């Protein structure tokens, strides 16, 4: 019984590691595409935000609103609009820094995290 539970746990850890690698690869490919095709506007800040927060979640890192704006690869005002829209849709959550009260951190909602898991799992299977 215990060995079955350990096997299941090991499989889940392996599966999650694979999903994290896929998300990191997608982010690297997007940054590479931007560098190589300088001046081309791809305009997918929501996707950059989702990928960035997915990777941060699995790495146990906090992402400030400012850092998320940079990660979105668009002007800060555009990124802030996307963050607000995604938060209103229930895709993102805002958390106040307990030490620096003016700093805010963002994370994926549980539903968005599950959706990203499903997407990356389907992507890996295709």
Structure description:
This protein is mainly alpha-helical and 126 residues long. The chain has one domain: Orthogonal Bundle (Arc Repressor Mutant, subunit A), CATH 1.10.10.10. The protein has five helices and three strands; from the N terminus they run H-H-E-H-H-E-E-H. It has helices at 2-36, 45-59, 65-71, 76-88, 110-125; strands spanning 63-64, 92-96, 104-108. Strands 1-3-2 form a three-stranded antiparallel sheet. Helix 1 packs antiparallel against helix 2 and helix 3 (65-71) crosses helix 4. The chain is globular.
What is the name of the CATH superfamily?
Winged helix-like DNA-binding domain superfamily/Winged helix DNA-binding domain
Tally of strands: 3
Distance between the termini: 33 Å
Order of helices and strands: HHEHHEEH
Strand fraction band?
A: 5-15%
CATH topology name, in short, is Arc Repressor Mutant, subunit A
Mean pLDDT: 89
Estimated structural class: mainly alpha
- Determine the fraction of residues in helical runs and give it as a percent range: 55-70%
Low-confidence stretches: none
Shape: globular
Q: Total number of helical segments?
A: 5
């Amino acid at each position: 019984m215990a060995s079955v539970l350990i096997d299941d746990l090991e499989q889940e850890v392996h599966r999650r590691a694979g999903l994290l690698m896929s998300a990191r690869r997608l982010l690297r490919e997007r940054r590479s595409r931007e560098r190589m095709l300088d001046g081309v506007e791809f305009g997918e800040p929501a996707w950059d935000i989702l990928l960035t927060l997915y990777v941060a979640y699995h790495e146990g890192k906090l992402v400030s609103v400012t850092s998320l704006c940079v990660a979105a690869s668009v002007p800060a005002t555009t990124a802030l609009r996307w963050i607000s829209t995604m938060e209103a849709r229930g895709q993102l959550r805002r958390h106040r820094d307990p030490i620096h009260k003016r700093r805010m951190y963002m994370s994926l909602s549980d539903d968005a995290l599950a959706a990203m898991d499903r997407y990356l799992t389907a992507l890996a299977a295709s």
